[in-house]
Amino acid sequence: MLELSAVCLRFGAKQVLHNISFSLQKGEFIGIIGPNGAGKSSLLRLIQGALSAQSGQILLKQRQLSSFATAELARTLAVVSQTAAPLFALTVEQVASMGLLPHKSWFELNSSYDSAQVRLALQKVGLAGKYSDVVDTLSGGEIQRLYIARALVQQPSLLLLDEPTNHLDVQYQHQILQLVKALGIPLLACLHDLNLAAMYCDKLLLLNQGEQVAFGSPAEVLQPQLMQQVFGLPCEIALHPRLHKLQVTFMPASLEPVC
Amino acid sequence: MLKRHYSLAMSVALLLLLFSMLLSLTLGSASLTLADIVSVLFGRPSVSPLAETIVWQIRLPRLVCAVLVGAGLAVSGAVLQNASRNPLADPYLFGLMAGAGLGATLVSVVLPPQLISLALGAFAGALFAVALVFAVCAGQHWRKVEITLLAGVAVSFMLSAISSFILYFAEPFAANRVIFWLMGSLNRTDWYSVMLLAPVVVLVLLLALALRRQLDALLLSDESARTLGVNTGRLRLILLLATALLTACIVSQCGGIAFVGLMIPHIVRHFFGVTSARLLLGCAVVGALFMIWVDNLARTVLPQQEIPLGVITSLVGSVFFLLIMRRQRL
């Protein structure tokens, strides 16, 4: 689905990403993790086509990413990022309908099939019954689900998520990740929360200062020494006894263990 | 905004427009009834040749121009507000009015009389202002809207300063002519003005309607629009050029008519909805309706004298705008 080989990105003299290589297969959920400034969002913007790599190769569906026209790329991959509030009072249905844009020609009107697609996407993310609500009145979790619905209307083969759980409370964080995982679309997401990444991702890509530190299953990537090297804090990693998922606990020196 | 609300608003606005157009043709120093107007329009032989001349050569071209100018300014304002993500954007964003003012000043005061018409001078001046703003902004590929807006303000002040300097030393009659012209009026419009304005207004409206989905996508953010396949830089350039050309044509025919392009889109959003298709069509109808009544007022309030359109649009518009702002969020 997506394959990066030795990709490098520079902003002027500054090396932002260096020698990034990984591949995303159908049905996989890959989480990009790393500290602030590691290059996570730049990598995502590179794959969206918003930035161009200086060297290396990015293949999307076995084709060079650069060979995709803008609208064709929008039909192939959708992006859910932290979006500002609309300038005017748009409704939920109007925002979700924007996902039709890459599929429509200049004067083409929305068909009843299009409207059904929009409503189906809103139902999938649990916003049925809120079609006419103004976006400003939604909660943070609902807004994030709305942008996922808009991405679904694009009918993408790959979904990119930039910090999808930021600013959401715990309930919504799990709700959003469960929702996107259940969609059955290959996913690539930047995630800050390592425990969420361990819980939901099939593979993790660990970045630090633009370098690819590790890529593999959560068990392969979430190693105490690697975490300490990248995040600068000692940590303990344990398997949750009931969930059988890894849990990362950082232990700053200022916090003495009780026993 | 539900679909039935939009349909209702549009139906009411279209009916009002039709009624206003007919009524407007009856207003003027020569007394003509609605029946006379209908007879003239449908070519019935019972009407006097004088009535025919008044309607076909004076009132009708002026009325059609009012429709085109109102629709054009409102559509331009709506497009620019969405494209620049700035609710305070208006068609005179790029110093167009100041450029037109400088063009008119040079033609009236500096150049030999009758060399170039005032309208052509204003048109050239407006385009010169746009070219200056575009020259400043071309380097950053239209990505930073703020730079475009600031460049427009700077160009506007610069050209206004030059005009003021020239007018300060000009003989009073020429200076008055330019100042009154800048206040806006439809009394110089004729069928030639209609032929100039109609294709430009229709083409810009069609272009904006074709790009309505892209304009909607811009309402969220540039980043968001790009992920939907919108080339935001190219989209802005096309729309800014189209609206600048339209506004320059309008300014050249009837001077400066302030507030229409800023105010009408906000009123239309309130009654018709915020998505671009509804907004643009609503602006075309409500803008035309508003301009017809502003012109009717301008022609009839004072006996034997016309009030400049810009004075009425600014006065009526600002009061109405403030009232709506006070009552609810636009």
From TrEMBL, chain A:
It holds the Pfam family ABC_tran. Residues 2-234 form the ABC transporter domain. The keyword Transport applies. Keywords: ATP-binding, Nucleotide-binding, Transport. GO terms for molecular function: ATP binding; ATP hydrolysis activity. CDD domains: ABC_Iron-Siderophores_B12_Hemin. Belongs to the ABC transporter superfamily. This is Iron complex transport system ATP-binding protein. It comes from Rheinheimera pacifica.
From TrEMBL, chain B:
One of its GO terms (biological process) is siderophore-iron import into cell. InterPro entries: ABC_BtuC-like (IPR037294), ABC_transptr_permease_BtuC (IPR000522). Coiled coil: none annotated. GO terms for cellular component: plasma membrane. Keywords: Cell membrane, Membrane, Transmembrane, Transmembrane helix, Transport. Its main location: membrane. The keyword Cell membrane applies. The keyword Cell membrane applies. It is found in: Cell membrane. This is Iron complex transport system permease protein. It comes from Rheinheimera pacifica.
